[in-house]
Amino acid sequence: MTRLKPLKIGDKEAPIPIIQGGMGVGISWERLAGAVAREGAIGVISAVGTGYRYPYLIKRDRWGRPVGSLYTHSRESLITMIRKAKEISQGKGLIGVNILYAITDYGKVLRDAIEGGADLIITGAGLPLDMPKFDPKKEVALVPIVSSARALKLICKAWSKRYKRLPDAVILEGPKSGGHQGFKYEDCFKEEYQLENLVGEVLEEAKRWGEIPVIVAGGIWSYEDIKRYLSLGAKGVQIATRFIATKECDAPLLYKKILLEANKEDIILLKSPVGYPLRVVRTPFVEQLLEGIKGWNGCVSHCIVPCNKGEEAKKVGFCIADRLGKAYLGDYEEGIFICGYNGYLLKYQGIISVRELLEMLTGKREDPTLKYYDGYKEV
After folding, report:
1. pLDDT for the residue 183
2. Of 107, 373, 39, which is closest to residue 221 (Cα–Cα)?
3. CA 355/CA 52 separation, integer angstroms
4. How is the chain split into domains, by residue range?
5. Which of 3, 176, 233, 342 is paired with 218 by a 20 to 30 Å CA distance?
């Protein structure tokens, strides 16, 4: 067994070089993030739809939806979750917050996360060229998500020129992740855009800016995957979907069961109101969408800037905030359930503890999914 080296981000260090990916709405909140950190890895709270966590703190419409971005991305809820996650972690590992750059009031939410005591902020869904503006005192580590060396170069040039600062680490996410992809729909299937074919040039670009730590994500599944990417020069990995099938995950039991029952062909890409392809599990509502039946019920949250107050949601036939909220509330018929490319393997994992999963991912425990995993391509 090869011992994995700790992951250092800024002036913080996690003994286990694994980041649990942020998953909203209500998949990775304080219970999951705190449990991951307690084992020595990096637990991540999703800042998407935090208003659903403590509904008594927010203004809701008659269907229970948070009204306006102020309540959809609730300051009080986010700060409470960060502090509770810290308590659960018992001072071990690190607690991060994943904030989509595309959300309304991005800067406000980032400042809320700092106030709550987050150790790092992870941002994807767009190029966060002004991310350091919201942390002028350098209170937190800043970690953008990119899909190419070009994107990393643009971020570094902008941050260096405007703020005299560089990313504390960068996450390279390939097109096999769950949720929104940083690629055009057709590019998600092309060989040149797969993670194994992007990592080399991103590592080279990171070196040009002073050895920025590169963390890889999107389809990372096993201990062997982790070892191979670390051997290439990556400093850590981000894994999300496998953490859904844990006892501590904040997702409702229904969500976990849907993923445990999913087959490979059930996991597909949809067009999202956010403007990116969205990887989900086929469920009744998704089947309706594929048949051309719309399910848009108006916009009340104004949560995502590219959606243009519901105009894009109306075009694609659904509001992503509404549908993720329904999934969190356990509505199988109407919810959308996000899942990574390899999520069909969860049936062979079952629902286990975070500790058991991390033992599999660090080579300390046998991984029952590996006999069904079609594996990692040599890079």
Report:
1. 82
2. 373
3. 27
4. 13-57+71-250+350-372
5. 3
Query: Quick one: pLDDT at residue 205?
Result: 96
Q: How far apart (Å, rounded) are the C-alpha atoms in residues 204 and 260?
A: 38
Q: For the chain, which residues score pLDDT lower than 50?
A: 377-379
- The CA-atom distances, in angstroms, between 98 and each of 124, 301, 316 are 8, 19, 25
Phi-psi region of 46 (alpha: psi -120 to 50; beta: other; left: phi over 0): beta
Q: What pLDDT does residue 296 have?
A: 61
| Residue indicated by tokens 């080279």 | 204
Cα dihedral 336, 340, 346, 350, rounded to 10, equals -60
Q: How far is it, in rounded angstroms, from Cα 54 to Cα 56?
A: 6
Q: What is the pLDDT of residues 306-337, one digit of tens each?
A: 555 656 666 777 777 778 888 888 889 888 89
Residue 172 and residue 215 in contact, taking contact as beta carbons nearer than 8 Å: yes
Residue 354 near residue 36 (C-beta atoms within 8 A):
yes
Q: Confirm or reject CATH 3.20.20.70 for domain 13-57+71-250+350-372, answering yes or no.
A: yes
Q: How far apart are CA 303 and CA 130, in angstroms?
A: 19
Task: Round to whole Å and give the CA distance between 341 and 321.
Answer: 22
Mean of the per-residue pLDDT values for the chain?
A: 88
For 119-153, the pLDDT digits (tens) are 999 998 788 999 999 999 999 999 999 999 999 99
- Ranges of beta strands (E only) in 33-175 are 42-46, 94-98, 120-123, 141-146, 170-173
In the numeric block, which tokens belong to residue 208? 């040009």
- Contact by Cβ (8 Å): 171, 143: yes
Distances (CA, A) of 54 to 50, 79, 82, 100, 247: 8, 11, 13, 20, 21
Q: Note the pTM of the prediction, 2 decimals.
A: 0.92
